[in-house]
From TrEMBL:
This is Rhomboid family intramembrane serine protease. It is found in: Membrane. Its main location: membrane. Its EC number is 3.4.21.-. One of its GO terms (molecular function) is serine-type endopeptidase activity. One of its GO terms (biological process) is proteolysis. The chain crosses the membrane at residues 12-35, 56-80, 86-106, 118-137, 143-162, 182-201. It is a multi-pass membrane protein. Keywords: Hydrolase, Membrane, Protease, Transmembrane, Transmembrane helix. One of its GO terms (cellular component) is membrane. It comes from Microbulbifer pacificus. Gene3D superfamilies: Rhomboid-like. Residues 57-193 form the Peptidase S54 rhomboid domain.
Length: 204
């Protein structure tokens, strides 16, 4: 009985669940127990260019601006990540997430390099990569959103999401990096192109 229970528990520890649990735990600690952790992990290109907080280019993905920001990102990770990880395998899924977490910040690293006031947090870039990699594999999947009474096909959701991210990136008064949303999406599409070009061939 013990062996069966342990096996069942281990089967639940998928890459998606592990990332979700770790990110949620760290984010909640930073939001409610240690505000200093939030500040230390925030991605600040101005400081990175000057040799400070270089780790923030990926650590920023484990903390969030507020509870809603965290909830939306983790909901998307759970919604899209489970099936994608099953489709492409756990190792490739973790590689996608890690690469996108860094790659999605690189354009902002250059764009805001002379802005000492800029700071952003969140896993949005990596989540976007997961969402758009999922769209390549399941373009006709129907997505139900909380504010719509009807489903959207995955490909249409992707187009609307990219359009919104490009528009919202003009707002500098938030710690949510909408540029990372856009470039994370691009990272997810490029990742699939290089690791599974057959998926793109089937899509086209």
């Amino acid at each position: 009985m013990t062996d069966t229970s342990e096996t069942s528990l281990l089967s639940l520890l998928t890459p998606t669940v592990i990332i979700l649990v770790v990110t949620t735990a760290v984010s909640l600690i930073a939001l409610y127990l240690s505000p200093r952790l939030l500040e230390e992990c925030a991605f600040r290109p101005y400081r990175v260019w000057r040799g400070e907080n270089r780790d923030s280019i990926y650590l920023a993905g484990f903390v969030h601006a507020n509870l809603l920001h965290l909830a939306v990102n983790m909901w998307c990770l759970w919604l899209f990540g489970r099936e994608l990880a099953y489709r492409i395998g756990g190792t490739r899924f973790v590689l996608l997430y890690a690469l996108a977490l860094v790659a999605s910040h690189i354009p902002t690293l250059f764009k805001e390099r002379d802005n000492p006031q800029y700071a952003s947090v969140g896993a949005s870039g990596a989540i976007s990569a997961v969402v758009f990699a999922y769209i390549v594999y399941y373009p006709q999947a129907e997505l139900y959103l909380l504010f719509l009474p009807f489903p959207l096909p995955a490909w249409l959701f992707g187009l609307l999401y990219l359009s919104y991210s490009a528009y919202a990136s003009r707002d500098k008064n938030t710690r949510i990096n909408h540029d990372a949303h856009f470039w994370g999406a691009v990272s997810g599409l490029v990742f699939v192109l290089f690791t599974d070009p057959g998926a793109w061939a089937r899509l086209l």
